[in-house]
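Attaching the record inline, Q. Sequence:
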Amino acid sequence: MPNWLQLMADSLGPLLWAGLIFTIPLTLLSFAFGLALGLVTAIARLFGPAPVTAIARFYVWVIRGTPLLVQLFVIFYGLPSIGILLDAFPAALIGFTLNIGAYSSEIIRAVISSVPKGQWEAAYSIGMSWRQAMSRTILPQAGRVAVPPLSNTFISLVKDTSLAAAITVPELFQAAQRIVATTYEPLILYIEAALIYLALSSVLSALQVRLERRFARYGGMLEANA
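Structure, as predicted:
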């Protein structure tokens, strides 16, 4: 077996383990928390009082206008200067959650706004409250439209977690960096890491296509029954 192939085989286990223990949990937790934050932010911008709307706008403006890497550095390296100490993983989780929350809020805000006003009126006409109309009528329709952009955000997050290596989270990319430091084979190891990210993204892309088709069929059934 060629030396480079042997090196890739030997390093595959540690890279996959780092991905399983850190990259995947960081991705799932960040997306779940970020999606919840995005929903709250979107509703605040659409229906909240002026002060709350202003705060939500400011949050989205700051996060979307600054690099994710800088945000991670501020949380992990900057906050200790004012007495707030965070371990690497929680710092990364907070950073990615805030970032996903801002971007997903724009998606959610757009899809909620795209639901025809007639749907609100229909919900109110049968005695639904605002909360019931939102949860039973508006969000299900908006969710179907939001699947493609939110899926793309999730796939991008998988790759963006490699930035957590910059604040010492021992995820997949930092595992590759550590192996490079002992083997002095950056080209081989970084290509292998890239292939793993590519495999993860390809699987998620395939799942996204199936999910979109399923929602499309569900939407067609609803329209047929309308």
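The mean pLDDT is 92. The CA atoms of residues 106 and 208 lie 20 Å apart.

More tomorrow.
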